[in-house]
Design a protein that fits this description.
Helices cover 21% and strands 21% of the residues. The strands form 3 sheets. The protein has a 4-stranded antiparallel sheet with strand order 5-6-7-8, with no helix packed on it. Strands 1-2 form a two-stranded antiparallel ribbon. A hairpin with a 6-residue loop joins strand 5 and strand 6. The longest helix is centred in the middle third of the chain and has 26 residues. The mean pLDDT is 90.
């Protein structure tokens, strides 16, 4: 007989230690590890195995792409607007490369032209410190406009 403790939907409650709930039911209904599983039982072990296989397959494909593209000559990196802000996009695999020098996913290297240099420059900004009223120095994200900085006077740090 299947038990709730083996189901993906069987989760610990975040507010009480040692108590559980099923995400298919009202949050206030208590569930216990040895309760009989419902009709919507979703085997946790099978799900974790599928996720592991998917991660292995993704990594295998990434390594294949690296073997092909890492030694190829650099290409121009595209900086595209995705609806929220400008981000780099690898022209080879179409993914966000996580670096303007070489793509994390396929290994393609990029030409370091003026557009990439401009993208890499920090957008330095200042604002008034909410704690002491002094001046905060930091950078404002070009993607989402968030400010990350430290106050010159009191040392307060902010991530807005």
């Amino acid at each position: 007989m299947k038990k709730c403790k083996g189901c993906v939907r069987f989760e610990p409650r975040w507010q009480n230690d040692g108590t559980y709930h099923c995400c298919r039911q009202d949050y206030n209904i208590d569930k216990y590890p040895d309760d009989e599983a419902c009709e919507q039982y979703w085997d946790r072990a099978e799900q974790e195995e599928e996720e592991r296989k998917l991660a292995e397959e993704t990594e295998r494909k990434r390594k294949q792409m690296w073997a092909i593209y890492a030694s190829k000559p650099p290409v121009k990196l595209s900086i595209v607007y995705d609806g929220y802000g400008n981000i780099p996009m690898c022209p080879t695999c179409g993914e966000m490369p996580y670096s303007t020098e070489q793509c994390h996913w396929c290994g393609q290297r990029f030409i370091q032209d003026e557009e990439v240099e401009e993208y890499n420059k920090p957008n330095e900004a200042t604002m008034e410190c909410p704690a002491c009223g002094g001046t905060m120095e930091g950078v404002r994200s070009k993607y989402n406009g968030h400010f990350h900085g430290t106050c010159r006077d009191c040392g307060a740090r902010i991530i807005e």
